[in-house]
Amino acid sequence: MTQTTGITITGVSGRMGQMLVQQVATNPKAHLVGAVERAGHDWIGQDLGQVMGGAANGVIVTADAAAAMIEADAVIDFTAPLATLAFAAVAADAGIVHVIGTTGMSADEIAQLSLPAKRSVIVRAGNMSLGVNLLTQLTRKVAAALDEDFDIEIIESHHNQKVDAPSGTALMLGEAAAEGRGVALADVSDSGRDGITGARKRGDIGFSAIRGGDIVGEHDVMFAGAGERIVLRHIASDRAVFARGALKAALWGQGRSPGEYDMLDVLGLNG
Q1: 37 marked among binding-site residues
Q2: Is 169 annotated as a binding residue?
Q3: Annotated binding residue at 183?
Q4: What is the CATH number of domain 130-236?
Q5: Interval 34-85: pLDDT, tens
């Protein structure tokens, strides 16, 4: 029998964590070997299958990330920035692939991933879906084709429990638009409009964040010119698209050289 890839999942009690468990269970190329939660969580010490409302699966939830990664080939991580940095060090020590779907990481926190990436494969993306990564490529190309007569606005919508704004996906799209125009996003980003702000600054890339209900994720990139608008849109109606993408990244990373990669690498869209 062909050996399958052992997966550890962090933040396993969360919506994405549980979705990842389900995706691993149905993928013939992977199996679950570890489940991590924060210390003191109710699930610690319990069988993961049972606390998720199903049959026992023999995977015990733990707060010890190193122990959870001993038998793993990859860890999939949708948690919080500081937790992700800690997991990156543990994954590097274990020599396994670290797939990062965590959003809200600062530039300094992202830079800190370069050290563990010297010893392990890190695949990080603001969004793991195929459609969003195609949208990123399209955004870069359209931004390169249009000059500053076209204002760029990125509008994102998510559920009312999301804690960061703009979303990681919106920032990824903003970076793509900035790259297309040959500028740094930090120099042209506008995400703080409130009150009497004055006219829009030519060349800025604007962000708007909508939070409500159970919206999974919607992203529009609008290029607004005089008399016409071009709108690129992606709508995610099922969180499983992110879990499938993350698992694809974990499988893709097997046997790769240590370094930092993204979903465009995984999907063969870079270069």
Answers
A1: yes
A2: yes
A3: no
A4: 3.30.360.10
A5: 999 999 999 999 999 999 999 999 999 999 999 999 999 999 999 999 999 9
Q: Is 141 a catalytic residue?
A: no
Q: Collect contacts of 105-109 with beta carbons under 8 A, ≥24 apart.
A: 105/81, 105/168, 106/81, 109/81, 109/82, 109/84, 109/85
- Where does CATH 3.30.360.10 sit in the chain? 130-236
Residue 11 annotated as lining a ligand binding site: yes
Q: Which amino acid is at 237?
A: S
Q: pTM above 0.85?
A: no
State the architecture of 5-124+239-266 in CATH terms: 3-Layer(aba) Sandwich (3.40)
Q: Which of 29, 118, 158, 201 is catalytic?
A: 158
Q: Is 260 annotated as a binding residue?
A: no
Q: Of the residues 29, 31, 41, 162, which is catalytic?
A: 162
Specify the DSSP class assigned to residue 79: S
> Comparing C-alpha atoms, which of 47, 39, 7 is closest to residue 23?
7
pLDDT tens track for 100-156? 999 889 999 999 999 999 999 999 998 899 899 999 999 999 999 999 999 999 999
Instruction: For residue 158, indicate whether it is catalytic.
Output: yes
